[in-house]
Amino acid sequence: MYKKIIINETDHETRVALLEEGTIVELFVQRGDELDIAGNIYKGRVQRVLPGIHAAFINIGLEQAGFIYVNDVATQNDVEFQEMFIKIEEPDFETLDEKEDDLANAFKNSSWRIEELLTENQEIMVQVDKSPIGSKGARVTSHISLPGRFLVLMPQSDHIGISRRIEDPLERDRLKEITLSLRKENYGYIIRTAAEGIVKEKIAYEMAFLTNMWENLQRKYKKAPAPCLLHKELTASLRAVRDLLIYEAEKLVIDSRQGYESIITFIERFTPGLKENVELYEGQEPVFDAYNLEGDISRALKKKVWLRSGGYIVIEHTEALVAIDINTGRYVGKHNLEETILKTNLEAVKEIAYQIRLRDIGGIIIIDFIDMEKKSN
Questions:
Q1: CB 40, CB 372: distance < 8 Å
Q2: Domain 3-31+234-290 homologous superfamily, CATH
Q3: Using CA atoms, how far apart are residues 317 and 91, in angstroms rounded to an integer?
Q4: Is the pTM of this model over 0.70?
Q5: Which CB contacts under 8 angstroms, 24+ apart, belong to 372-376?
Q6: For residue 93, which phi and psi values (nearest 5 degrees)?
Q7: What pLDDT digit, counting tens, does each position of 317-337 carry?
Q8: Where exactly are the structural domains of the chain?
Q9: Which of 224, 212, 41 minimizes the C-alpha distance to 125?
Q10: Which element (helix H / strand E) includes 81?
């Protein structure tokens, strides 16, 4: 399947669209005024410890304090490596804590109390796990992870994890042996899918790069005042290169010269072989118009999405969850009501799956199907 990335970049907004055979399937929008800080690393200061809910507020220099649960506070012998592995390498999966209520699970499987780990005014290095939403501050963790193309460095762990998408046992053994032979300081690593078939020299280069990044972070942490930003996550355009162009797309088209030059610099540093896959769009009409994407994007931003049959779905975002309601709308069917409802529900299932991917919806999703009488339906 031919995949292409189209990027529209302005001073105030970046839009990234992933196309499969010409049809938009994923859309990412990053606005300059949005607090999209997931992945950023800060030197924070403990503002308040809350023993009652096994959590604490961390001042990271933003308007709203970050929030950390006891299980997200790193200790020498208590690193949730498997949970982090799932988050980084299998983004479509959710961890147990994300599927269930945060407060109900905050103290689950932890042998520590929050007041034993953190005290007010204590300095701590944290990474943003979830950006602020509405009145809720960022969720942060002190389990730091630094992703690269082939590896993810987990400096507070000594485990080696391998992507489940690498299925060949011999290749898994080869990659694990390479990683063990190269690593220093007994740092933990996740071996990503893109590492399959990669020679030792390239893995060694990336490991050295990530290790150097971590050492620089530690030096910066020692000197910098709290609170402050230590490391900023990649822009939407560079994340598209790292997460899409490297792994699955054949072509990337961007309409900003500054963005194009930034991507080329990034590629020359990490993946020079992909340079020919990047194109600067210089056409007269806007790049999204040239690829007929504006209609799909407009549709993706609306609460109500019409189905081909005449039914529709309504997508509502709240701070706690995403609710999706299905309605028959103008569709009355040709036979009986039960058949009409079944057809609408089935059509809605396909559209909802598409919309979840297109809108990058995650977390708790509740779907209210139209009630049916027959058990077989």
A1: no
A2: eRF1 domain 2 (3.30.420.60)
A3: 20
A4: no
A5: 372/338, 372/341, 372/342, 372/345, 373/338, 374/338
A6: -90, 155
A7: 888 899 999 988 765 655 678
A8: 3-31+234-290, 41-231, 302-368
A9: 41
A10: helix 81-89
